[in-house]
Amino acid sequence: MSFAQLMLPEALIRAVTELGYETPSPIQAAAIPKLLAGEDVLGQAQTGTGKTGAFALPLLARLDPTQNDPQILVLAPTRELAIQVAEAFQAYARYMPAFHVLPLYGGQSYTNQLKSLKRGSQVIVGTPGRILDHLDRGTLKLDKLRAIVLDEADEMLRMGFIDDVQTIMDATPAGRQVAMFSATMPHQIRAIAQKHLKNAEEIKIASKTSTVESISQRYVMLDSNQKLDALTRLLEGEEYDASIIFVRTKSATEEIAEKLGARGYAVSCLNGDMNQANREQTIRRLKNSQIDIIVATDVAARGLDVERISLVVNYDIPYDSEAYVHRIGRTGRAGREGKAVLFVSPRERRLLRTIEHATKQPIEQMSLPTGQVIEQRRIQSFREQLAQTVENQDLSFFQALINEWSEKIDASDTDIAAALLFLAQKEQPLNVANKFPELREPHARGEREDRGRNDRSSRDRSDRPQRDRGERSDRPDRGPRQRREMKGDFNTYRIEVGKEHGVRAGDIVGAIANEASIDSQFIGNIKLFEQHSTVELPANIPTEVFQHLKKVYVRKQKLSITVDNSAASTPSTPSGDRRPSNPGPRPGAAPRKPRD
Questions:
Q1: Predicted TM-score (pTM) above 0.85
Q2: What is the domain class of 467-563 according to CATH?
């Protein structure tokens, strides 16, 4: 089956063709006709099976281009997925006139979001918390909504957003179309489907993702602010002919290419803003060894087949396992050996496990090349260039100069050669063994413990109902539970929202986890008072994140978070007490950007 056979409009067919899609995936082939016909859809499919195209393409086909109010609302569990989905909509709609898509998530300036909402967008993609904030403020109107999509519904359940999702869905017009996608179907998700979907046929797709065995797959665990140094070290220490570096955004292709170019690499970027002539010129330069490194987005690299590429670096981890397979497939082609390296931050461990599960292959952790390895590589490379120059170049003019200088300078040939070598290597010094800063591990926990915990909690398990911290916080109050001490440096903080505002522990966890990018395992005991609450958080929250948390709203109340100087107090009727099931060390000292 082709996309044309799915009866999509010509503008969308042209876009997907240029994006390199040849045939629809199973979930797309099953869901697109139903959504085109205006039916509701309940899809069960793993991440990486093409779900975004399955709902974006048919809903775009039903869009009214003359109406600038929100017609499609997509709810996603994280800001990363919201951005990814918004970018996919933009790519599919590139030939649709006057089309606008707007991602809404925490950590963004409200001012910018309000300006964009006033300008108008047909498609809104957002996280439940920020969407609910705009609905409460009256800045987002859904009265003309035609369709709502729940993407990765089980993840929203796991993260404690399911009540926000219910509230949002209740605020949408009764006649809107509903598409709901989830990797698993816990009873809470089925309950939502039964309430909001009309005569929806369930579509269940099994992932068949696999990777080429000739590709060596490894990952590096590091904090996000270490990526550029890690990339430089990797490119210095690995043997490769040519490399392609994958990032998520067009702007990142230009930024990383510029920084690598400043460090002496022959590099160019490849993104969706480039016209076909520039794209072909860049690929031709790569094939002709005029450049050695390409920094690209997934869309721009589709169909790229250059024999020289022997190293693929996933600078940004993909959210889609199919995208991962496409990425690393740029190397190891036609039986050739290739290498693929994946950069993973601590909060992206779940994505790593999802990719491993989908590809049915383990990805081994690696250590970055040491300063000694890089020094030896530089010396070897310089020696090879020197040998080629001696063999292939006419050096008579320079030999005469050396003979003349050795007499005038009163220095031996060895001294002169050493001085010239010193001058020649100043841009890329050979003596660097002790000058490369060691990149620290982001967490002290052993990989075995981490892998075991994540494997046990992998969200694709369906043999038993999922039970997570978000669900536990939604249970009726059972009184105080035995306190379990948090490890590491933690403080007790006061927030100005309490039981009289209708807040629950899950609301607080969701807001802090998403607005401050603090993993839920680092959110400790929560106690709810009548007009305020207390929560245990790491003591080393970065100043800019702490200031941002002060302005976050929960249940229409600003948190106004402060350090609690009366932490010894206890509520007369404690409720919502929460503790992590896996208390661990405090997060790394490096600040992380807020996410939603």
A1: no
A2: alpha beta
